[in-house]
TrEMBL record:
Protein name stated in the entry: UPF0145 protein B0I00_2435
Organism (species): Novosphingobium kunmingense
InterPro entries: UPF0145_dom_sf, UPF0145_YbjQ-like
Gene3D superfamilies attached to this UniProt entry: Hypothetical protein apc22750. Chain B (3.30.110.70)
Superkingdom of origin: Bacteria
SUPFAM superfamilies referenced in this protein's UniProt entry, alphabetically: YbjQ-like
Family: Belongs to the UPF0145 family.
Amino acid sequence: MLSTTTAVVEGRPVQQYLGIVTGEVIVGANLFRDLFASVRDIVGGRSGSYEDVLARARKQALEEMEGQASALGGNAVIGVDIDYEVLGSNGSMLMVSASGTAVVL
């Protein structure tokens, strides 16, 4: 499945537009990961544990979106947009959403 942020794929014209597809993933923060991330924030450096969670959530959201496109008969998603939002009390949850237009190229 081809996914791109662009509205066109050079050399491959859109034959059919199938509609908007989305993928959303919400992940909760872990108490121990939060504690170590806070310490790292104080002393400086990157929070590898949060980066890993973010990467996995983004991958899952894209896979869910691509799965919807495939179910509609598409072979690509164009105009992909990825958004991040903090949810819950004290920002305890992170939502990653991906959306785009399913097409047949």
